[in-house]
Amino acid sequence: MSLANQTAVTRRLEITPTSPPLPGETDAPAAATGTAGLTTAEGDPTADGADIAAPEDADAAPARATAADSLSDTSAGRTLPPTAVTAVLHAFGARPAELPPRTVVFIGSTAPLTALPAVHEGIPVRTAPSPAHALHLAHHELQAKSADLALVAGFQEPLGRTVTVQTLRRAAEAVAADDSVLGVLDFDGCAGPADEPILRPSRHSRRLTDPAAPRLLLWSGGNAAEEQRVRRELAPLLDGLFPEAFPALPATMPCGQAPGPVRAGAVTTAERAPAAVAAARTVHAPRPRPVALLFPGQGSQHTAMAAGLYGREPVFTAAVDAVLELLGPEGAAVRADWLADTPAVAIDDVRRAQPLLFAVDYGLGCMVLSWGIRPAALLGHSAGELVAAVLAGVVPLSDAVAMMRERVVAAVRIPAGGMLAVAAGAEALRPYLRADVVVAAVNATSQTMLAGSTAPLAETAAALRADGHTVVTVPATSPFHSPAMAPASEAVERAYTGLPFRVPDLPLYSGYTGGLLGPDDAVSPRFWARQITDPVLFQPALDQLLAADDMLLLEAGPRQTLTVFARRHRAVRLGASAAVPLLPARPVTPEADRHAVLTAACRLWQEGHQLKGEALARLWTCAAEEDTPAPATRAGSPVGVAG
């Protein structure tokens, strides 16, 4: 089932009214208790604004909470008070400031709703004449991209009954975030907004059982002797196993216990598994180095980059689809050119390079997060910094895609130009600079990029080569990070004004400040707009990152460019830190894409990180699902189907 234009239900709770007030006493309990009238299932009163823990198992039967004053009977002329909105928010343990910027509360009720505010603590509140109407309205706003998260509550008369509260998201974004997906809403059978949509299971992938496909075998022990014992137990199991059963083996062993510090792993097929397990290297990893994700930018793109994961790894696939869907009608053409042998628009064209790099970088980042990795820091190069900003919580995905699209629109209006990679330091290149050719990026000690308009840049390249410098033309059709892009910078700054920027939730190192991104820059439209013209200070930013701690640098993008830069850093050369790519260094086969990702995951395991075996297994057990009908339930009925 395609996730395009689908709305997913990701959480469901049931709120049960308790002690409905008498006529005229709607707000009395709140005044008496000083709360929003919401208590947890265990009966503990929760103060207004308190941090309520969400249920641990959102995929199981709907959790139940109670509300005293917030869900009162509206018959006999009584109306829902403003605390009904508070109850909806508290049911999910969320403070308004912690919710995504474009969160909207939808309340559908056949009873009067005249007492509800249009905005509650900065969150818009929509009302509808029935619960079904509210679901239709939420779906419409999500698909129109005017809302990113919908909290929907349906109130039936009499209001003393259990009220179902649901969270809705665009389906692809929910899967990309590895959110619980209880199902997707099917509106096809609805004659109008009064008809309740059907909730269908989200089956966006199907199971594979190919024994010839490589997979991960990961095992550990509390000490060297335990690891050897697990390895010996694996040997006869693999020797006698039917090949078709090989993909179904657990990703991590032994099962049912926490991984030990002595680790080993192998990327192997069923046929080679016994030999691979016997030859696997043992690593003692008592303290894993923190992971920092690196996101490459313009120049790293190539045709079909990471295409071997598309349609095979569900989180990556959903993340790419989410980005392309947010691009609107152009998204389908971008996808087609990405996967085509001969694209209609060249991949190096800014109209393809920027959207696809964003989508691939974001998809890889989401995939790594779904494995259970929580990065200690993020660092993006050029356009990759915008992806880092999304994962750090600086800007919502929908706004980040809009920002990237504005960059592209502004860039195509600038006269053609390009970029050069030169094997020399920035100081050594100063004699070759001119008004229209400048230092665009400082990547490593002897790795500098120049940018400028086409003719002056060609003259500079010729002069550099004549003097014996190694010069490589970067795949770019725009003079990014040069004064030539100033009109584009001014245009996007106007477009960025008013966007809901926030301070990062994770340490975000910026290639434009050369260090940790501060709160003032994070929320400044001008800072993000000037990234088109300002030079990228990747090396200084990496210096600051590796000075903070010994790190395992994981490049979430194509071509291994940042891995190469990082491996030249002194901290990496000395072994204090390490750099690992997720994808191959050059365009290869889809199988090579998957093998590279498996190898990176194995390295994370050997480093000592705890990984989610079920998430890893998707790399060798999943493929894209064809559109097929699935059993369904009404959206208001209990559901226990996970995506």
Automatic annotation (TrEMBL):
Region of interest (Disordered), residue spans: 1-79
SMART domains to which the protein is assigned, alphabetical: PKS_AT (SM00827)
Keyword Phosphoprotein (UniProt): yes
GO cellular component assignments: cytoplasm; plasma membrane
Molecular functions per Gene Ontology: fatty acid synthase activity
GO biological-process terms attached to the record: DIM/DIP cell wall layer assembly; fatty acid biosynthetic process
Extent of Low complexity compositional bias: 24-53, 60-76
Keywords per UniProt: Phosphopantetheine, Phosphoprotein
Full protein name: Malonyl-CoA:ACP transacylase (MAT) domain-containing protein
